Each structure stands twice: as structure tokens, then as C-alpha cells.
Amino acid sequence: MSETDDNVLELSGLEVGYATSEGMVTAVDKADLAVRRGEILGIAGESGSGKSTMAVALLRLLKPPGRVLGGSITFRPKDKAPVDLLKVQGQQLRTLRWSNLSYLPQGSMNSLNPVMRIKDQFADVIIEHAPARRSEIDQLVPRLLEQVGLEPRVARMYPHELSGGMKQRILMAICIALEPDVIVADEPTTALDVTIQRVILQSLADLRRDFGVTLIVISHDMGVHAQLVDRVAVMYEGKLVEVGDVRQIFKDPQHEYTRSLIDSIPSIGKEAS
Amino acid sequence: TGGGGSYTDQKQGAGKPKQTAEVKIGKANIPTPREETLVVAQADFTVFNNWNSMVPNGAPGASGFDMFVKEYMFYLNLATGELIPWLCTDYKYNDDYTALTFNFNPAAKWNDGKPLTSEDFKFTVDLLRKRKDLLGGGGDLTEFVKKVETPDEHTAVIDLTKPNPRFHYGFIAVILSGFDIRPKHVWEGQDPTKFRDNPPVRTGPYTLKKAIQSQKMFVWEKNPDYWNKGKLDPKPKYVVYQSTAKQADSAALAFEQVQFDAGSIDEEHAKQLRSKGYPALVTTKFNDPCPRAFWLNNAPERGIISEPKMHWVISYLIDRPKIGNNVWPVKVPAAQYPWANFKTNDKWSVPALAEKYKLTYSPEDAVRLLDEIAPKGANGKRMYKGKPATIEMITPVAVDGPEYVMGKLVKDELVKHGISATMRSLSGSVHDEKFQRGEYDVAVNWVCDVSWDPEQLYRNMESDRAVPIGKNAVDKNKTRLKDPVLDKLSKQLSNLDPTSPEAKPLLEQALEQYYKRLPVIPIIQTGYPQYFNTTFWKGWPTDDNLYQVPLNWWGHFMFVIGKLEPTGQKAPS
Amino acid sequence: MTVTTSTASSQQDRDERPTEPPSGPIVSIRSVLARHPLAAYALRRFGLYLIELWGALTIAFFFFRMIPGDPIQTFIQTLQQNYVYNQQASAEVIARYRKEFGLEGNVFTQYLHHMKKLIFEHDLGPSLINYPTPAQDVIMQSLPWTIGLLGISAVIAWVLGLAAGALAGWRRGKLGAEISTNLAIILGHVPFYFVALILVYVFAYTLGLLPARSAYDSNIPIGFSPSFLLSLLQHGFLPALSIVIIGIFNWLLSTRMLMIPVLGEDYLTYAEAKGLKPGRILSRYALRNIYLPQVTGFGISLGFIFNGNVLVEQLFNYPGLGSTLVTAITQLDFNTILGVTDMAIVSVLTVNLVLDLLLPLLDPRVKYWR
Amino acid sequence: MAISTSVTRVLAAPVRTVRSSPKLAGGLIILVVLVILALLSPLINAVIGGGSDPVAVAAYPKWQVPSGAHPLGTDQLGRDVLAMTFGAMSVSLRIGAVAGVVSTVAGVIVAFVAGYKGGWVDAVLSTFTGILLVIPTFPLLIAFSAYAREVTLFQVGLMLSIFSWPFAAKIIRSQVLSLRTRPYVELAKVSKARDMEIIVTELLPNLAPFIGVGFASSALGAIFGLVGLEVIGLGPGGVIDLGHIIYAAITTGALTLGAWPMFVVPIGLLTLLFASLNMINIGLEEVYNPRLRGVTGE
Amino acid sequence: MTETSRAGTEQRIELEHVEQRFHARGTADGFMTAVDDASFSLTSDPPRVVSLVGQSGSGKSTIARNILGLQKPTGGRITFNGRDIFSLSRTERDEYRRNVQPVFQDPYAIFNPIYRVDRVLWKAAKAFGLAKTRAAADELFEESLSAVRLDPGRVLGRYPHQLSGGQRQRVMLARVHMLRPAFIIADEPVSMLDAQVRKLFLDILLDFKQQYQMTTLFITHDLSTVYYLGGDVMVITKGEIVERGPVATVMHEPSHPYTQLLLDSVPRPDPDQRWTDRITV
Ligand SMILES: Nc1ncnc2c1ncn2[C@@H]1O[C@H](COP(=O)(O)OP(=O)(O)OP(=O)(O)O)[C@@H](O)[C@H]1O
Ligand SMILES: Nc1ncnc2c1ncn2[C@@H]1O[C@H](COP(=O)(O)OP(=O)(O)OP(=O)(O)O)[C@@H](O)[C@H]1O
Ligand SMILES: [Mg+2]
Ligand SMILES: [Mg+2]
Ligand code: NI
Q1: Is the previous residue joined to E46 through a cis bond, with omega within 30 degrees of 0?
Q2: Of B304, B495, C107, C312, which is most buried with the most CB atoms under 10 A?
Q3: What confidence tens digit (pLDDT) does each residue in A87-112 have?
């Protein structure tokens, strides 16, 4: 057993660019990153540093004009053979999705189908990926909702009847419906206010505790990382400049950029001169 | 120009007509056996349950009803000039033209079995005479009829309020149809503004079998009990009048497959069929009773157009052969008289006058006359009495319609010769309004005033009927002509039988005066050729044997049907 | 004929705008209604319906009366054409029919007369083209044919167009989708007539497969017999086909235009991330979100069936409303023309009303307050 | 120098827009070609007529098959079909332009007043446009044109725009509503800008694509509306547009006669026109609807 | 224009029992109250930063819009030096606008995308008569842009989409710098900026207070920003101002439970100080 078996995901030399009128713009520049099974990995970096692009490429949701320019992403699902995520296609990709790799998108406001009841949006993935459990849907959905602190009646509602925080939690519940190996959460708390943010962060921590999933949490808010993650990867202009244990990053930042990032956090108790 | 010939004249193969093509019989959508049925394609019908022509749109026209369900007292066959007594045996005036007697055929009977009598006639005349709110009511009947007497069942005498040698005109089917006698036993006690008269009780050889609204179709069935079988026993067991597609394409295709036997396809498609060698097409030409004409305003307020010389200017600018050859859908002759060139009208023609006042195309003469009355101004525009000369031309016919085109050709010539002229197509009502009120210079349409004798036209041009411009002429003197000479002649003629020897010189003088003033300029004789299919029925009138008016929307079509014979062709199942 | 995507517009209209609460005595009624927002909405919507109804009927009425050319004059001319003796219709005739056709008095009196008859007696007055049959009966005689022909072909065109449009949008950039889209862009406005004529020429006259004229075989009695229905189908096939072909193109274009923005929505990306099959994403996520405006559009277009399709009806000699309308217009049969217009207005508005009342139930997103 | 750079800068944006959408570019090219052909119509007349008017009645024998002298043959009145078609196309285009301008201007004004003022003004105007939208235009147009035979081209355009401006107004109003509360509008307000100034300088330019779409669809609607009327034979007289030629072809049964140019050429031109305007519409929408652009941000 | 022109004459914005209601569905009376009986005042002498903090939807922006005169409140009144701002004469309103200027939340939507960014400055300069000619104005712009630490050469002549969010937001600050209003109404001006730019922005704001005596109403949901700015703070929840006072006091001894909750929910940027207790909302 080599050390790499611990890694559920390995990005090596990932390069993603966007074709623009001024030519190809590199958004992710030769990123190498290993994600360990069961950890919560934070990805930090200022806006535009390429965090979302990396996540989207990893999830194979990159849309034109975006294009993967090089590299590979090895994914080792629990029950399947390792695959290169950048190579799988069609049905194979579909089965990987959700049962092994799920996604908590950045824009929670618009990620739920406005004309479907919440329950049906749960049912969708179950019918698609675990048809055998079809009959359990009625019990499963309330349980999942409870997991993220929502009442069962929410299942009958439509997205527009819910607040942003509730929607975000529903997306989380859908994420864990099939107990995937990896969940990629892109800015799960941006656009939510602090009290809700705290609840969401709590729930995310619970997910790992209860299901042992691996979480990749993208956020530009260093406070979020401090509160939630095990390790932090810092991105700057498309490059991963530093990857390290959360304590090390905060107490002893190696890279200059990381340092400035930590320094610029305004916080209570740190008053202006 | 070196064109490649016309679409329809193109001969098949090396310049010679193809051998007789085969007729491919299509399925006609009729509820009766095809070989026993005469199918006539007609315009759009909208009324199917009303035969009361005394209310607006009461009885559907051109539906078969006017042709062989209702019959008339007399028919004037314009094709031969023959007067055919039918429900009547004859008519007679007393010596001073104050009483008119009709003798009815004792055999005549309604299709419900009741005999037709002079009482029915009296009933109808009295109804129309008294009810001015009925269409056809009032008018001459109120003005001239003192009373109707019925000395016996077969005789009716109309007492006139004043002498009138032309009163019988209204009781003879000349153009389209004639006086419709209603059966008293059916109509008595009915409210004539509400009664639908459905199915119609009349005397003709056919009765209504059914009117099918959703097929836009009338199915007429032979009346087994017809009173005049001796003279008319038509062979078709059924006659179907149906609306065909208004589009020439569809209609032509339907004709080709004999989905109907008679009906107006258009000349171009007929020509195409002919050049294809289609064997079953018979084309019969018949001239319209209304020559196309320019009506000219004679009111001095209208300026240059009131000059008699200007009337001749306009006449000289009309290229009648070009119009006859190129503008009218079929080739037609030029018109010299303001009436149709029917045999019945031959007696009114005066060759010497026609020669003297020949209506020709002669721009030089036009310019010569123009220079006399409206010399050219500095800017090349003609001036009349110090003002620029203008001519306003109108027509009720749509743009590109033949009458519009006739007007436009003349308008272009006028403009070329320095007169600012306009040509406008107006909707029927707007045109009629302007026409009747005299708010026009030239109205391009047709002259229909002579159905019996020219005095009908002259009478409408009497000075006392010329109302001021802006006032409705009520179909009388629309040209506002005031000519004492013509007035005098017209007055004298009105009390004379036009065929009498005394009338002849007066008519000649009147015609000469008419030519001098030229208030209405005849342009061309017009005709609508008829197309018949000989696949199922033969015996149609032809150009060589034009035994009747061939138009299927005239009452006279009854006689055409009477002559038809089946060919024995069976319809494909 | 409009071209762009505006079928979706009924929803855009329900925008949220800040409205300040009123003060005054009606507040109490408001507070009652506030507790039943749906009832309040229905009430308000119904009020709007009445206003629109009144407005549209009024505008239509005055528009006709504003037509240049004196209608009375035309009317009289029409009477004259029916006249046996070629004379001017008497004053009595004119007076009688002026009264009977509601043409007495000034325009305003005529308007009141028309509205009164319409509202209280549902009477449009006698038709001129089929006097003295009431105009509403004349319309009703041809309406079923038109509804049968145009209605059914409209439904078929809508269903197929919606499906094709959704696919064309979904597979944007793919060959098949681009071909069909471009075909629609190019052929969407070829006149029905042209298509119809070609169909007639090929199928009816050359191949002799289908009848070219009428709505049914006149040999077969009207009824619900199989042979009659078959004949209806045979006769309706070509005219319907010509309408369907062009209709599909138009629905395809508008559906595609609605579809494309939806494809950029986050929930579609999310559905893809969920690993759902494309077919499911298309039907449950994409189409579900756009079909309602198309339903609204369809509802509105159904109203215009009242216009009939004159050319196709004339070409196939179909006994529909279109030819009746044209006849009425050429004879200036005011009561019938206005009747058709009024019926179209009432039906379009009613369809709209019903849809607007149903929409909040069908589409959870529709906000029914204003 | 300064002028030329500012011109290039002004042109840069539209050029970029056109470049980025092949549909838009294709549509514009077709349209420009059609307009040029229409503009050349007098020239074509002169060439074909060789001094005389090739579209005068009975200028030539009727129903001539296509030949060197008459590339598309002659019609039922002996007019040259090619010359007539180009003349008719220029009429169609001009009517579209008139109707497009009138209805866009009317629509824009109403939409701005309604959308920007809001309140009862909006309620009244929107209800009014709503009412006009449900009145079936077809019978009204038929009636109108059947009884107003000889009308000028401008009047026809005007008549057709009576019923098309509400569509434009409706599309634009909803856009105004969405723009009205944009922060930059509010910033303009607190910078003492007047309502009129805000409308003209802040809102109008941003609505240009929608106004363009409104214009194109009104123009198209008018052209096809008129064709619809013409084709059933109830078009206003005196205006020979493409529909009129189709109508002539229908009434004379040109198709069965074999005179295909009378059908095919006007329908082909209309089809091209429709395709080009539709491509412009679609192109504009794709370019200006950020959702369709596939670019993140903004 | 001198910096001391306002000295001595104290300017004052006063909100008295302001209430703003909107139509809404599902509430008992069909309305929802976005702002409920809000009273406070802003004074220019001495200049201060007053923060308004509260969660999303608590009515913060509505208050800002009320003060800016963009939305007329349904109850209460807002006065400027004693005059109701919704019934000012023309000159008074100009004076008010001159003295009260906004910085909005969204740096993207604040620029009309079709114009160059200079226009925002030029319009303001023209409207308030700061410069007659473009040349004079350019000088002003350069001064103001430098004051917000932007390189004029890299900003002027550009289109909004060519600038980053932080740059755009600073252009708005430059505008304020140029106008020198007595009051800045800043509605979440930094919520969309990342940490570094945010800090820069706040520093400039504090600088303005110092140098040009500008009083700022600073709206935010981020307590750490409040803390950084200092001055006074008001806590708003569900349209109601529940707590007010100097920042230090409120932050260290919150009296209202809602303030307490807010404080507790701020994630501390220290992995060793993770939350141990759980909250529910
Ligand atoms: N569709 C696109 N076309 C061109 N460039 C793009 C596109 N999408 C993203 N980019 C660019 O790629 C870079 C990375 O963007 P990305 O969205 O991954 O950043 P991010 O770190 O997620 O930022 P944020 O914190 O704002 O979400 C940015 O410079 C962005 O401008
Ligand atoms: N024009 C309006 N019409 C109806 N409701 C409105 C309107 N403007 C605001 N509201 C409502 O008023 C409440 C307060 O809104 P406001 O924008 O003031 O909140 P906020 O505190 O600024 O929130 P955020 O932090 O999200 O910006 C919200 O519930 C909002 O939905
Ligand atoms: Mg991102
Ligand atoms: Mg806000
Ligand atoms: Ni259209």
C-alpha cells in the first residue's frame, strides 16, 4: 500500500484556461494537489484567483470558453477502480457523479429547479443512481433534511418559498443523499449572513463526522477556513502557492501572499489606528 | 421585344399541338350520381336558408334559383334577339299607352301543384307597390301603377297613372333576371320582411333538393311535375351549383378533372388546356350588355372637363385596339355606341353617324383640340381660363383591374400632353358617393343604361335631372349634362314607341347630339367567355351556334340546360 | 405576425414594483383581502379583465366606424344591387335598415346601442350577408369548422414545435439543431398558401391521394359515423398540414429563444452535476421552466383562430370563419365583422384571464400580487 | 486625427458585436444586399426598359416566358416581372422602415413614460397597450385597407404600425422596469440629473439592442402583415409590394400556368428578408443577453 | 472650495420615527414593515463614522435609500437642518445633494456599462459646478484618484469592465473625495471586495473623516468591519434598531441578545479558537 492510496483525489499539472478575445487566459496554472480521504480541505485565495475554475474542472462542469489545457485528475472512489476524471465520458461519468463525487455550488440561490418541489429534486438523484432505493424516498428525504436541521415539511415546498440559508442546507442534504466520497463546496457561505454562515459551517463539519466524506471547501474568507478545515491550499493568480495544515498556515505562513492574506483580515479586537 | 413566347401559347413538342390528350376524371364532391348531374362552379355563397329577395341578400344569386326555379313572364334572348313568351303568352298596350295587359299561360303551375294565375301577379305587384320598405318596392311601380285588375284568371291589366310605352320593360328578363311573381297562396299573410320562403315555391323545371351550407352547395332536382315539359324537358336529373376555390390554380385543376361542367375558369388556363390538346373544352364568347365607358362631368365648375372639345380630347387619347387586345382578359372589339353590340341593338345603330363621329385613337387630333382650349403655359403645363388644367379620374375597380388600367393609360397620355391628371381607385361606396355627387372629372366604369332603347340613356341626361355638384344624382344625370337639344328630343321620344317610324329620325338626331357632347365615351365591348366541359354533357352553346346567352348566372341559362344531352360517360367509382 | 420571443411576456409583466400602501377607508377591505391574497389577486385580475374587455370592445367599435368611406352609403349600394328595378332604394328602405342594423343616430348613439345589445342581450344584431339571421348565428355556423381545422392543427403545431424548439435549443451548435433552426428562420414566414398549393398540386391532383376541396364528402351524412369522421380527416389533412408545417417552425423559433437563457441557469449545471440523463434534464429541468409562457402564447394564439385562415379556407373551399369574415368585410356587414372581432376579443381576454388565474397554480414562481 | 480615433472608438463596439455573432453578421449582410438591390431598382428599370417604363401596363406582350429580354418573363398585364419585383421589394422595405420607425418611436415613448414614471401613468398606459394587443388586428386591417384603396406608402406603414407599437412598447417597458432601479440610475439621480437626462443618457443606450429588436420585429411584422393582406386580395391599392405580386400570381393562377417566377422570386425575397431580420434579432439577443454569452462576470 | 467651508455651521440629518412598509404576500395585513420606527441623527460636527449593522433583509439598505431621497418613507420624517427632505425647494435640494452622497454596495452595477468611468466623475463635477472645463476637471480627477490611491493614468479613459471591483469602488470614493459632502451614505461598500482591498478602502474612509470632516453612515453586516472603523454603531434587526452606542461598548458589553448572537457568529481567524457550542436559528 503506497501512500497515495490515502489520497482520494490527485491533481497533477492541471491547467485550465479561458478563450477570450485577447487570447487564452490561464485561470488554473499547473496545479498539483492531493486530497486525503476523509479530510476537509480548504481552498483560499482572493477573488479571481481561479478557485472556482479548478473546482468546476474537477467536476467536469467546465463550459466553453473554458478549456482544460493539460494535466490529470486521478480519482479513487471507495468501491470502484481509480479513474482519470479528465478522461471519463458519458455513462461512466454519470455514474461517478453524485454516488462518488458531489457538488455544492456557489450560487445556491439558483441551483434548485424553481418549478420542482424539493422532494422531487431529491428523488431525481435517487432514481438515477440508486433505483433500488426508490421505495425509500419517502423516509429518506425527511431524514436527510433533518440531518441539515430542516423540518420535513420543507420537502413539499418550492425553492422560492425558502430563504438562502435553507436552500444552501437543502443542497447539502442532496449532496449527501448517496453518501459520496467527495463533496466539492464552492463558497458555501458567501452571500449568507453571519448567523446562517455559522449554522452551515456546523453542518458541514457534521457531514464529515457522520458520513466520513471528504470535503473540499472553497472560500475567500479566511475565518471560514480557520473554523472548519484541516488543511488549506492557497491560490494566487491561478497557482497553488502554498498547501499546509490549517494551524501552520495561520501561525506560520510560508508564502508571502499567504502572509498578506492573513494580515489583511480585519477582526474584532484589531482596531484601526 | 424578343420574348420567348407566352406561357400558354407554348405548343407541345415541335410546334404542333399535341394529339388529343386524355381527360382524367377526378372525383367531384357531390351527393348525387355524377353522370346524372350538371355541376356548375360558382362564387362564394353565404345564404342557404332564405329565398326572399325583398330583403337584403335575401336570395342567393347565381345559385340556380334565378336560372331554373323561378321563371319569368318573358325572356329576351340577347344572343338571337328573340323574345320568348313564357309564363305569359303576350302583352299589349292600349292606344294611348295608359293600360298594359298581360295574358298568362293557362298551363302554368307552381311546383306545389297549384295553378299560377293573374291573381298571383296582382298580389306581387300590389305588395311591392305598397311596401316601399321592401327591396324592389316603390319606384316605378308606385309612380306609374294606378291599379292592377284581373278580369279573369289568365289576364292582368295594369292601369297606368300616365302614358308610358316602356312600362313592360320591367317585366321581361333581359339582363340576368326579370320580374319575380310570388305565389299568393304561400305569401299571403306573411311578413314580407321576415318571411324566408324556404324551400322556394316557384314554377320552374327544378326544385330545391337541399342546400348544404358546409359544402357551399345547392342541389336542385328535376321537378317531375313541370308544367311546360312540352317546350323544355332538361336531361340532367340534378343540377349542383357549388362555390369553387376562388383561386385560378385550383379552379383550373378542378375543371381539368371535370369536377364541374360549367363555370368560369380563366382564359389563360383555358388557353393552356387548348394548347395542351385538352379535348373536352368548349369556349363560348358572349359580349357583356355593358360596354366599358368613361363618364365625363359637364358641370362648368369642374373646369376644363366641361368643355365638349375636352371630351373629344379624351376620346382621341383612348387606344381602343390596345385596350381590347391587351387589357381585357380576352380580345374584344372597340365600342362605337354606348350600348352592347347585341343583335337586338342593331336597330339603333346609324352607320353614317358612326363614320362621321368615329371614335379613334389620334393623339395628334387630341393635341390640336387641346391647343385650342388649353394652350401650354411657360412651364409646359396647359392652362385653362388662366388656371392649370387638371383632370381627376376615378374608378371603383381595384388597382390593376382592367378599368383601372384603361383609366391609367389615358391618364398617362394626359400627363404627357401637359395636363395634370390623377387616377384613383376608390372603394365601391366611396366611388359611388363621388360619382353621384359629381365630384369627379372622369369616372371609368361602364355604361349600362341601354337595355332596350337609347332613349333610356338620353332620358337620364335630361337637364332637369342635373342636380348641382355635391347633391346626389340618385343614379339619374350623373354627368350633369344640360343640353336643350337633347332635352327636347328626349321629351318627344319618351311618349313614342321607339320602334315606331316616328321615333327613328328623332333617335338619329339624338345620337348625333350625343356624339357632339360625348358625355359618356364608349371604349370597348366586353365579354366574359364561358367554358364548358363536354365530358358528361354536350349540346352547349358555341360561338358558331350561340343559341342562348351562355352565362350560367343568367335566368336564360334554363334554356341552355334544356338543350344538354348526356354523353353516356360514366364517372369512375 | 410577430416574430420574436415575446410569447413569454405575460410573465415579465408581473414585475415587482415598490408600491406604497394607501391610506383611507378602503384599508379595511384591503386587510380582509390581504388575508386571502389569491382571492384578492383573482378579484383584481377580474377587474382588469372587465376594463380590458370594455376598452377593447370600444376601440374596436370606433375603429370600424372610422373607416374612410361612408358605411351607410355602401350599405345602400348593397341594397341597390339587390334591387329589381335599377333604381335608387327608397328612403323608406334606407330608414328601415338603418334602424335594423343599429346605424341610427350619431356614432355615440350607435355605440351605446351596440354595447347595450351586446351586454344585455348577447345580440350582435342581424347579419347583412345572411339577413335576417343574427350575426352571432352566422358566426357560429362557420366557427366549428374553423376551430376543427385551425384548432387541431394549431395544437399539433404547438406540441411538435415546442418539442422541436426545446431540442434545437438544447443541442445548440449541433448539426441537426442548427439545420432545423436555420430552416425555421428561413421558412418560418413562407405563406401558408404557397405550401398549401404545392400540397394540393402534389397530393390531390397529381397523385390523387387526397381530396382537394371541402370539409367532407357530401355523399356521407354528417354525424359521428366512422366513415364521416374518416372523410373529415381526409379532407382536413392537406389544409391542416400546410398550417402545421409553418406553425411548427414558428413555435420552434420562439421555444428555442426561451430555451437558450434557461440553459445558462445554475440549476441546469447542477442537474448535470447530479449525473442525470440528458433527456431527463431536458424535460424536467429545461422544458418545465419554459413551457408556461408558451402555454400562455398558445392561449393567445388560439384566440386568433377567430380570424380564420382566409387563404387556406378559400383554397380548400373550407366553410370556415375566414371566408365568412372576408365576405362580411367586402359587403361591409358591420354586425358580422364586429361580431367576429368582439368574439375574438372576448375569447382572447377570457383565455388570458383563465390562464392568469391558473398560472399561480401551475407555476410556483408566478407571483400573483402586484 | 482626433476625429478618426473617436470614430473608430465609436465604431469599435458595434464592430466587435457584429464580429462576435455570425448570425448577426449574416443577417446584416443579407439585409444590406437587399437594400442595395432595392436602391438599384430605378437603375434596373432603366436597363430593362431601355428608355421606356418596363412596369407600365401593356409595355410588352403578356405572359412571356423568361428570356434574355425578360429574365423573369412578363405578367398578366405585360409588365416585366424582374423590374416589378425589385420595385416591389423597395416598397416592402420602405413600408417596413416606416412602420418600424413609427412603432418603435411610439413604443419607446410609451414604454419609457410608463416604465419610468410608474404609478397610475404606468397602469393606464399598460392597460391601454394591453387592450390594443388583444384586438384582433386582422379584421381591422382588412376593413381599413379594403375601404381605403389608394393610399400612400407612408399611410400604409402608419396603419400597420398602429397595431405593432404595443408589442414594442411591451418588450421595452419590461426592460425599462429592470433598468430603472439600477444603481447607476440612482447615482445619476443623486447627481442632480433630470428625468429626461436619465432616460436619454442612462437608459436609452442600454436599451439599444431591445429597441433594435423591437424595430426589426415591427418592420418585419408590417411587411408580412401587408403581404398577408395583399395575398388575400384585400391589400390597399396603389402600393405594389412583394405581396401584391404574390397576389397577382395567385389570382391569375400563375403556378399552374408555369409562370413560376411570379411566385418563387417574391417569396424567395421575402424569405431572405425574413431570414435576415430574424438572424439580426436572434444575433442581437444572443449578443446582448449576458446569459447567452457564456462569459462569467458582469 | 475650501475644506473649512463647513466649519461652524453644523449640518444635521435627523430621522424621526421613520417607517417604511411594502406590499407583501403572506403577511396578516398584506404589508411588511422593512423599517420600523427608526430615529437617529447624523451630525457633521464633529465628523464621525456611524455604522449600521444587521443581517440580510433587516432594512439597512432601505434606510439608506430613505436618507438619499430615493424612497419616500411611509411614516415619520427625515429632515436636513430641520427641513423635511421630501419637500425641499430646488436650491435646497441641490444643497442637500451636495452634502449627502452615496457609495453603493455593488461596484459592478454602479457604472453604466456603456460609458467610460470618467463620466461618473465628470457628471458630478459638472452637476455641482466644481469645474467649468474638462481640463480643470481633469486636474480635480487626478487629485481625487490619487487620494484614493489609484493611478489616474490607469483608470481614466477606461471602461468599467476593464477595472477590478476594488478599483471601481475606489473610483466611487474618488467621486466622494471630489465632492466633499458632509455626509457619506455607504451601503455595504466593501462586502464584495476581498480582504486586502477592503482594508484599503476602510482606511481611505477613515482618512476622509480625518481630513475633510466627512461623517459616514456605514452600512454593513460584517461586525469586524465595524470594529475596524470604530465610532458609533447601531444594530438593526427586522427593521428595528435594537441597540446603539460607541463601538467599543456595544462590542464588549452587548446588551441585546441579537447583538450577542451576531458577535458570536463571526468566525475568528484562528484555528485554535474554534467554536465549541452550537447555535440554531
Ligand atoms: N467564462 C470566462 N471567460 C473568461 N475568463 C473567465 C471566465 N470565467 C472565469 N474567468 C477568469 O478566470 C479567472 C478565475 O476565475 P474563478 O471564477 O475561478 O475565480 P474564483 O477564485 O472562483 O473567484 P471568486 O472568489 O470571485 O469566485 C478569473 O480571472 C476570471 O476572470
Ligand atoms: N422595493 C421594495 N418592495 C418590496 N419589498 C422591499 C423593497 N425593498 C426592500 N424590500 C424588503 O424590505 C426588507 C428590507 O430590505 P433591505 O434591502 O433594506 O435589507 P438589507 O438590510 O439592506 O439587506 P441586505 O443585507 O441583504 O442588503 C427586505 O425584506 C426586502 O425584501
Ligand atoms: Mg468562485
Ligand atoms: Mg442591502
Ligand atoms: Ni409573425
Answers
A1: yes
A2: C312
A3: 888 888 888 888 889 998 876 677 88
